[in-house]
Amino acid sequence: MKVAVYWGCVIPTSQYAYEMSVREIMPHLGVELVDLDNASCCGTPVQSVNMIAAVYLAARNIAIAEKMGFSDLLAVCNGCHLSLFEAAHLLNNDEKLREQVNSLLKEEDLQYSGKVKIWHTIDFLHDMVGEGAIKKALTTSLNNLKVVVHYGCHILRPSSVGTVDDPENPQKLDRLIEWLGVKSIPYPEKLDCCGAMLMLSHPDAAFTFTGLKLKAAQDTGADALIDSCPSCQNMFDVRQRSAGATTGAKLNMPVIYYTQLLGLAMGIPQEKLGLNMNRSPVDEFLQKALVH
Amino acid sequence: MNSSMTITDQMTSKKPDAELKRRVLSKIGEHKPYSCYQCIKCTSGCPSMKMLELKPHEIVALAKAGFIDELINSGIIWACATCLKCKERCPQAVAPVDLIMALRNLAVDKEAKVPESFLHDLSMILECGYVSRPQPTITRKLEKIERDKLNLPKFKECDERFKATFMKALEAKTESESQH
Fold first, then answer.
1. Per residue in A94-142, pLDDT tens?
2. What's the ipTM?
3. Do A157 and B85 make contact, defined as CB atoms within 8 angstroms?
4. CA A136 to chain centre
5. Closest-CA residue of chain A to B105
6. Are A2 and A70 in contact (CB under 8 A)?
7. For residue A276, which residues of chain B lie inside 8 Å, CB to CB?
């Protein structure tokens, strides 16, 4: 199966572990990823500045996939996924807007016609690849682990445009984890926001969001927090220390991408999954997961 | 007592600006704020309410009353974390977050006080197509790592044709705006 992949800004400029782990796991699942030619920002950071320009940016990336002949586009970042998904919804339902955006796209010989289906890592693995193919690719059993999950706001809401999973009671990431023989613990703060988008205007408040959620996750006694959004990972993993300092919580929570966890269960070496770049204390977790 | 048909700000005696109100509401659907019956479901689920006292239902009420200038010049519209719970849960499909985004767009147009980072992101996109160029990162063992050393495809910046088109997109107006 050949699928176009769109990485956005955050992943290829700082969250390298997500890119590496996605690139590593997909061939094991019979998926060949093809990068978009000349992609650009998805438009999310521009939504606050100019909505038309934001929709144009989103449409541009979809139109590139269309021009390259793909009918499926994997947008691995939550923010990018929503931006592309929401723009597609707007363009499919508003002819005038579509004409306006298409006249801009024409400058680069591109066109949006609404033929490309947009996926996120979670629904792509859950719905398109599926349980059978994932279980078949597993070679390493992960010891009795229990984890908590974080979906990230932008793959769940708004359901009015259609989303990756149920907006109030998502289960796909939990199931993906359980297919690896790992237990996902329910907790009341599961849907809480990581605060990343507030980094642009209120960083202290953003760290408070992050710290409170991490503390709640830690209080469950889980071995790790599993996520699949580079912006959330940036808050929970890279900025864990600042989040702890802001909230006065002693944080010590391993934070790992789902694709890294899946890669471990496929027997892929840790370095290839970028696990040396997770900044949260994942060593003990890895020890517990892998040493039999 | 004030006897006029519109609300007047009692502190400043200022009347709402009908034109600004029209500009904002046209971006989200004129009827939307009028469907709001102030059930406060948005505010009760808003994470920025706890942290920054953002009250989406008040923003809807103020926009409906026409206090747009006050809203775009107050910092409160930048307190939204775009978690989208208000949009998901509103029983009347008002989507306060969409209103907040429309107000932010207008704040930029009117050169009100906009947090620097948003404009920085914009200038980066104009410069290279992305909000950033690849940054060095560090491992847990504090070794510095560059993207180039990770066996990943080369990062490509956007060309001049993209930049010119993006500039055009930034100058584009919506249908309803261009009628005036």
1. 999 999 999 999 999 999 999 999 999 999 999 999 999 999 999 999 9
2. 0.95
3. yes
4. 23
5. A49
6. yes
7. 139-141
